[in-house]
Amino acid sequence: MAKGDGKYISKEPDAQGNRAYTAEEHLVWRDLYNRQEKLLPGLAAQEYLDALEKLGLPRDRVPQLNEVSATLLQHTGWQVEGVPALISFKKFFTLLEARKFPAATFIRLREEFDYLQEPDIFHEIYGHCPLLTNKIYADFMQKYGEIGLKVAKEDRAMLARLYWFTVEFGLMKKPEGMRIYGAGILSSVGESDYALNSGIPEYRKLDLVDVFRTPYRIDIYQPVYFVINGFNDLYNLVKDENVLLDAIREARSLGEHAPKFPPKEAGLQAVGA
Ligand SMILES: [Fe+2]
After folding, report:
1. Domain coordinates in residue numbering, the chain
2. Residue among 123, 124, 188, 192 flagged as catalytic
3. Strand locations in 19-176 (E)
4. Cα angle, residue 182 at apex, residues 264 and 46 outer, rounded to 5°
5. SS3 letters for 74-93?
6. pLDDT (tens digit, 9 = 90+) per residue, 200-242?
7. H-helix or E-strand containing 135?
8. Is the overall model pTM greater than 0.85, yes or no?
9. In angstroms, what is the span from residue 183 Cα to ligand 1's centroid?
10. Is the domain 23-258 a CATH 3.40.50.300 member?
């Protein structure tokens, strides 16, 4: 679902399903891994940290998708499938419904170490895959894909908002404080700190209609985060598709919230002024 600008090229697998990475690409993975490992205790949800341990990713090289799939299969029956950066909604939902997580296969350049708009393999594997070992989270993801295949085409953007504000940028309120479970934050060093410690973003309790009414931008730190209490909350959002479809209808009739950010063009002009 991400847009690419052509800077990164998807890696093709060989006959055994393995992809080749250069020594520098392995070092980028190692350095990203080490940095997030130091940063995330106290910021990431314990469920994520436990899941990361369960997944047992290599630290000093880019993992192969097959080895990640082998571990996921044992835990929840999920797998990872390599895809180009840009795939259709239909393909995206079809893969999720089949318990296959679509993953970009290139890794970011060192000059974009801190932030890149396109999802790279570090974001996909380190950010997304650990929680796919968590049963309730894994079931939520599959059900989300199943519903995605059923909604009208014009409602797919609403479902994209639900994914954005949970799977990518979700926060969880725990007895020990606010914690991160969204992959978009977990794989970004700048946003992990900003989301919890800056005092800037607004936190809202997750409500389906509210999420469906909230526009977002992919190229800025988020001005608003939606908060859950646990992964049961996520599963409850999708367990009855009629409730979800009603919420889409209600959101449509109420209309979109005014964005809490300037439109992209206006923002860029403001920066230049
Ligand atoms: Fe993602």
Report:
1. 23-258
2. 123
3. 79-82, 100-103, 171-174
4. 155
5. HHHCCEEEECCCCCCHHHHH
6. 999 999 999 999 999 998 888 999 999 999 999 999 999 999 9
7. helix 135-150
8. yes
9. 6
10. no
